[in-house]
Structures are given as structure tokens and as C-alpha cells.
Design brief:
Length: about 180
Amino acid sequence: METNLYLAEILHELQQGANQLNDEQADRFVERIMVSNKVFVAGAGRSGLMAKAFAMRLMHMGIDAYVVGESITPNVTEKDMLIIGSGSGETKSLLSMAEKAKSLQASVALVTIFPESKIGQLADIAVKLPGSPKDKSTSNYSTIQPMGSLFEQTLLLFFDAVILRLMEKKGFDSTTMFGRHANLE
């Protein structure tokens, strides 16, 4: 198959996924971000990269956002929020973070394929995204893409849609956001 046909199929899969998003879950997620003092993000592997991209956009909005594990990450408190991106919702290191955040009375949100997972059961908010887990034998969801690619792409697009919703609620535009863009490049 030609590359442009693969791309067309990936875009089709992403469109199908967007149509399955639960707006109520997404709205609760946005509202919780808006009332949190600080927002912490975490994810493993490629999901972690998507979470880092989200943290950058939150920073561009003037929200105190941090990536768990970075040397400048402060302490979490009961006024804060931990957002975890995990296809399985079972990654042990992320489960440990969720448990620690809950013990400190921070709110926990999970964006996942499996809201019924261990992290999902701990989370205050679980947003279900479509996708196929790395181990395709545990899912009936069909994708041409390898491993967790569809989830990771959908995660990035979901996070970007959340940013647009936050921008709308705060009356921001790209110019407002660009004012906080890195300028030591």
C-alpha cells in the first residue's frame, strides 16, 4: 500500500475515535483543570511524550503545569491535579504515582482505553479514548497501526482539543498563548 493510503486510513481511524468521545467526561476533565492550582502530567513511553506536549500547552495558557519526574517538579497538594495518560491504565509506576497523589488528597484523572483499570478505579475522572492496546489480543478494536499508536495519537489530539476548550473558556487566542512561548530559542 502507498504511504498516502496508509495516512488516509490513520486519519479515518482517528475520525472514528473522535466520534466516540464522551463529552461529559471531557467537560469534567476541563473543569477540574480550571480549578486546580497546579497540574501534573505523567505517562510512560509515547504516552508520556503526549503528556509532555500537553504540559507545554498548559504552560502557554499560564497554568502551572509540570511533568512528573523532571527535576523542577514541585510537591503535589490537595489543591492540585495529576493527569495520567495510559492506554492500559495498569502501568505499575503510574499506578504508584496515582496512589501517592490520592494519599496527598490531590485529584487524579486518567485518560485511557480502559477506565475500569486499576488506575481508573482510583481516579476521580477517567476519560475513555478509543484505541487498541499494545497487546492486541486483549481488544476487539480494529486498527492497522502497530501497538498503541492509535491511542497515543488520539491522546495528543484529545489534549489539543482540551486546550482549545480551555482557551475558549478563558477567552484566549493564539496571540495570548504565544506571549508565553519560549524566547531563548
